[in-house]
Amino acid sequence: MSVWKRNILVVLAVLVAIGGGAYYWFVVESHMPSDAAFELDINEVRRLADEMPGNKPAKIQVEQIGAFSFPSTAVVAGDGWKQTAMPVFSYQLVFPDGKTGIIDTALSKEQGGENLGGFDADAYARMSKALGAARFVIITHEHMDHMGGISAYPDFAQIAPVVALSQEQIDHPERSGVAALSAENSKLLTPVVYDKYKAIAPGVVLIKSPGHSPGSQMVYVRKADGREVLFLGDVAWHFRNIEVLRERARLVTQFFLYEDRKAVFGQLKALSELDVAEPNIAIVPGHDGMVMASLLSEGVLSKGFE
Ligand SMILES: [Zn+2]
């Protein structure tokens, strides 16, 4: 073999090695860092949920507004390139006195653009109407598929008094993309300020969980019938993230989401431990159609807003 041919082969081998390494690092690698940790004191959360006087929610209702579709490896690193569904949900808590609260508001057809499939205009209209009637509106985090309904609401000043965004959610409009509130509208809000946990209604407790975004929080709900539901927001997109303790591909967390990956890993670990210790708590990832179907069939959640 001539020297130049050998040199070309060496260069090619180096390029393949670099490319393969980069592919592994950005698309496949997802090991739990040994020091990843998140403290989730479920008994303290329960205490706070019980402490607030008043009746707990009688029902939790859900609307699916549409669905994105992502390569599986974007959701669980290493799961390959087959597309997987990312349905977008909004939840309504119905209290025994008929008052309601909303968790997450999905997004409008315009905000979702061509990437949002199966947009259900009727479901969105019910969600938007429910926003206008809610006693409180909370979001798990400041991404457009969770807060879009708030910013697209036709009369923001009307709902502003009940929109309970956390300080971190208000402080990071750059994370909300097309759903970012104008500075003017932001000023109409009273930020929710808290350290670790905060009860905001009977049976309803916020759990500060920065990582997926600075303003991420989980929402614990204990229903009047005793059933416990933990809305994760997008700490996990699918339950499989918790099951196999694998994060989204680094390509996604680093270049699209700007996640604190180690923080999310800690949360996945804490949720996996919680699931073992407290199997009766319904854990609801942000975009898992299978979990949703089983909670609907068990009657933990019910379909369609009031
Ligand atoms: Zn989401």
Describe the structure in your own words.
- With 306 residues, the protein is an alpha/beta fold.
- It is 38% helix and 19% strand.
- It has two domains: 1-30; 32-303, Metallo-beta-lactamase, Chain A.
- It has helices at residues 3-28, 42-51, 72-75, 109-112, 121-133, 144-151, 156-159, 167-171, 183-186, 240-243, 250-257, 261-277, 289-298; strands spanning 59-71, 83-94, 100-105, 136-138, 197-201, 204-208, 217-222, 228-231, 282-284, 302-303.
- Strand 5 and strand 6 (204-208) form a beta hairpin.
- The longest helix is centred in the first third of the chain and has 26 residues, at 3-28.
- It starts with a helix and ends with a strand.
- The mean pLDDT is 96.
Structural descriptors:
single chain, alpha/beta, Metallo-beta-lactamase, Chain A, five-stranded mixed β-sheet, binds zinc ion
